[in-house]
Amino acid sequence: MKKINVVGTSGSGKSTFSRMLADKLNYPHLEMDAMFWKPNWQESTDQEFFATLESKLADELWVLDGNYNRTVPIKWQHVDTVVWIDYSFSRTLYQAVKRAFLRSITKQELWPQTGNVESFRKSFLSKDSVILWTLKTYKSNRVRYQQAMSNPEYRHINFIRITSPKKAKAFVDKLGT
């Protein structure tokens, strides 16, 4: 495992897992949201986003955290491993709600030098709510990753499906032993 993409629905725990995995392997942790979001919640254009992504993925070792389905042709071109964090719907929704609540209270900047913080209003009362996004994409993400695992186009990829936090920890703990 040298080039790893960790995927999963928003709130699934992919960022937590990605950081844990990157730390264990001593690889750079690359967060797609940090590449995409500009200050004041401005989105990068696809041209900007794709160029940044291609530049970051030029290195030999990395753990890439994120979905962004439109980037699959770029990120999966040379990836050797995709780790799918596929926790239950109830677990994923609980984690998304808990994270949104905590972030709206702490006002922690999400990505360096963006000033982007989550607010209660944006998280719970907006059409752009990450919780609403989790509700809308959970099922379609599961279908997409199940299909990708059996797609001959991706036979060069080792797919690993992790279905619980306990299994995630065991997977990381087992590395390097």
Question: Can you tell me the residue ranges where pLDDT is under 50 for at least 5 consecutive residues?
Answer: none
**What is the CATH H-level superfamily of the domain at 3-88 and 137-171?**
P-loop containing nucleotide triphosphate hydrolases
Going across the biggest sheet, name each strand in turn: 2-5-1-6-7
Question: Which percent band covers the strand fraction?
Answer: 5-15%
Q: Mean pLDDT, as a whole number?
A: 95
Q: How much helix, percentage-wise, in residues?
A: 40-55%
How many whole angstroms does the radius of gyration measure? 16 Å
Our count of helices gives 8
Please give the largest β-sheet: 5 strands, parallel
| CATH architectural group of the domain at 3-88 and 137-171 | 3-Layer(aba) Sandwich
Per CATH, the class of the domain at 3-88 and 137-171 reads: Alpha Beta
Keywords: Kinase, Transferase
Protein name: Adenylate kinase
InterPro entries: Cytidylate_Kinase-2, P-loop_NTPase
GO molecular function: kinase activity
Protein model, in words:
The protein has 177 residues and is an alpha/beta fold. It has a domain at 3-88 and 137-171: Rossmann fold. Helix content is 48%, strand content 15%. It contains eight helices and seven strands. It has a five-stranded parallel sheet with strand order 2-5-1-6-7. A two-stranded antiparallel ribbon has the order 3-4. A hairpin with a 3-residue loop joins strand 3 and strand 4. The model has no long low-confidence stretch (mean pLDDT 95). One of its GO terms (molecular function) is kinase activity.
